[in-house]
Design a protein that fits this description.
Strand order of the largest sheet: 3-1-2-4-5-6-7
Structural class: alpha/beta
CATH class: Alpha Beta
Number of domains: 1
Radius of gyration: 16 Å
Helix content: 10-25%
Order of helices and strands: EEEHEHEHHEEEEH
CATH architecture: Alpha-Beta Barrel
CATH superfamily: Aldolase class I
Strand content: 15-25%
Largest sheet: 7 strands, mixed
C-alpha cells in the first residue's frame, strides 16, 4: 500500500467523451485555480472526499475490461502530483495510456522545480493544458473547454488524437450510475441548454 493517498471527487469506469477510445475517468478533489465558469465547481474545495490508495486504484482501473486507459481531471491533478504519478505509473505498467486535464499552462508545468510535478509529467501521454476562460468558450475542438487551452502529445502513444476531427468522439455523454445521472464532456452553449432542459424534465422538482 502506498503511503500517499489520492483525494478523489468522482470516478467513472467507462467514458468516450474524455479522451481517445474508451477511458476510465478519475476527478480529483481540490483546485486552487477555481476558474470562473468551470464545469466542475464541486471539485474546487480543498476538503476530504474519497481518500484512496493510488496504486490500488491504478490496478483496479487497469483491470477494467475493454478500456484503453485513464483520464485524470478535476479539480487540479497537479496539486496532487505525487499521488497522481503513482496512479499513472501503475496504469502504464499495465499497458494502458494516460491523459490529463490541467488548468496550468504547459510551460508552467515544464518549468516547475517540483520533482513530483516532473515525475507526473513523465507519465502522461496526452495533456490538455491551460485555465478555463469563459470568454473563450468551447468551439467544438476535441476535449478543450475553452479555445485558449492547448493539447500536447507527450509520447507517441496518443499523438494521433491531436489532429483527429472534432466529430470523432462524443462531445457530451450521459451515464446512469445507479440512481445518479452523470453528465460529462464539453458541451457548447446550445448543448448546455439542451442538457439543462433534459435534467429538468427528468426531475421536475429541481430548481
Amino acid at each position: 500500500m502506498s503511503r500517499v493517498l489520492l483525494n478523489m471527487a468522482d470516478l467513472l469506469l467507462r467514458s468516450r467523451a474524455n479522451g481517445p477510445g474508451v477511458r476510465s475517468v478519475a476527478w480529483v478533489q481540490g483546485c486552487a485555480l477555481a476558474c470562473a465558469g468551470c464545469g466542475n465547481p464541486h471539485t474546487h474545495a480543498h476538503e476530504r472526499k474519497h481518500l484512496v490508495d493510488p496504486v490500488e486504484l491504478g490496478r483496479r482501473l487497469a483491470a477494467v475490461p475493454e478500456t484503453d486507459g485513464i483520464t485524470l481531471s478535476g479539480g487540479e491533478p497537479f496539486e496532487q502530483a505525487k499521488a497522481c504519478a503513482l496512479l499513472a505509473e501503475t496504469v502504464r505498467e499495465a499497458g494502458r495510456s494516460v491523459m490529463v486535464f490541467s488548468g496550468y499552462p504547459y510551460k508552467v508545468l515544464q518549468e516547475s522545480s517540483e520533482s513530483a510535478v516532473q515525475r507526473f509529467l513523465a507519465t502522461i501521454d496526452l495533456l490538455i493544458a491551460g485555465p478555463y476562460v469563459a470568454a473563450r468558450k468551447h468551439d467544438g475542438s476535441l476535449w478543450r473547454a475553452s479555445t485558449n487551452q492547448t493539447i500536447h502529445a507527450l509520447t507517441d502513444r496518443l499523438a494521433h488524437a491531436v489532429n483527429e476531427p472534432s466529430d470523432t468522439y462524443p462531445i457530451v455523454e450521459i451515464t446512469l450510475d445507479g440512481k445518479d445521472l452523470i453528465t460529462t464532456g464539453f458541451p457548447n452553449e446550445q448543448e448546455h441548454q439542451w442538457l439543462d432542459e433534459l435534467l429538468i424534465s427528468l426531475n421536475p422538482r429541481a430548481p
